[in-house]
Design a protein that fits this description.
By secondary structure, the chain is of the alpha+beta class. Helix content is 28%, strand content 28%.
Length: 151
Amino acid sequence: MITNDFKIQSHTSFDGLSTIEKIKVVNFLHIHLEEFGDEKNDIRKAIDYAMKEISSPGGFVLTAWDQQRIIGAVVVNKTGMSGYIPENILVYIAIHNEYRGKGLGKKLTKKALEAASGDMALHVEPDNHAMFLYEKLGFESKYIEMRYKKK
């Protein structure tokens, strides 16, 4: 049964992700990024970077849960830069295919923008339908990279 009763959790290097939670997020992203995804090892590296489990400026992971399963996930990495490169990059965002078109992607993207300190960039394939959502939220297209400027 699909409901709108879900909770969003934020994970940073301070509270981290357990090994089991990390595996769940990696597997979820690997499946639900579909043709826009990466190998599990690359997804794991982005999460390790966000959690500062490797030498990095850090970042955060957002997960949306419907009871016991993940229905959405976001990985944001801090770049350690500003100005010419935004302070953050939205590396991954995926919504469970049963929940697409219900506003969860918009809600998670807004939450990521609110949680991030500074500007944010993301890379999006030109045929990704989510590009419309990113533009609607304030990202601007420069070639294929899109940037959001905090006001």
